[in-house]
Write a structure and sequence with these properties.
By secondary structure, this protein is an alpha/beta fold. About 35% of the residues lie in helices and about 15% in strands. It has one domain (about 25-245): Rossmann fold (3-Layer(aba) Sandwich). The longest helix has 19 residues, at about 185-200. The model has no long low-confidence stretch (mean pLDDT about 95).
Length: about 250
Amino acid sequence: MMEKKYGRPTSLYSVQTKYCAGCGHGVITRIICELIDEMGLREKTVVTNPVGCAIWADLYFDMDTVQPPHGRTPAAATGVKRVLPDHTVICYQGDGDMAAIGTAEMVHAANRGEKFTTIFVNNAIYGMTGGQMAPTTLVGQKAATAPRGRDPDAAGMGYPIRVCELLATLEGARYIARGAVNNAANVRKTKSYIRKALEAQDRGQGWTMVEILSPCPTNWGMDPVHAVEWLEQEMFPVFPLGEIKNTLKKEA
């Protein structure tokens, strides 16, 4: 008799995806759902997902979700976690949302050590709204609002923000890691980072975040294969992978 070893997570709805071909959001969603099932968290998990490509997340997470206004996800997650401290709260954000309109919310939630976990999807572009330059867009990378490429010397452009490194300076941020979904090995490593962050939340150890580098073939103007190659060649040097900060204790 054949034994089923692998299948769709219970926490993941069986529906057709709205994400573009080659987008990393679908892989990230599955990783989170796998962990929620493996850790037995489904009945007490709340996901907050804002405007942007992250807004589709509640179509796939078979659990409680809240859709805050653009950039206000950390504030909403703070409220949910304080009212339901025994619940697992996941703040699911993209780079345009988290590192632009939501910067103040993000910084202060991390500084206060709010006890929820942020999943930060970084594809270096505004995905849903038409491919505009994001805070994480690379120097020289073309975007709808930077057709000649991001130029740090041009008015209003500046440099890409390294969110992990920025937040690592805050005392309330206890665990910060950066993974990617470009290949199976990095998917497994990223999943291990998210597990560690969720376990820390369960122990009440402060604010945790996992940034995930993800391809956006549609707004990069590439096919999925070349988008993965570009992510590896161009994004990895700017946003190095690994644990950026770990001040967790094994027991709280």
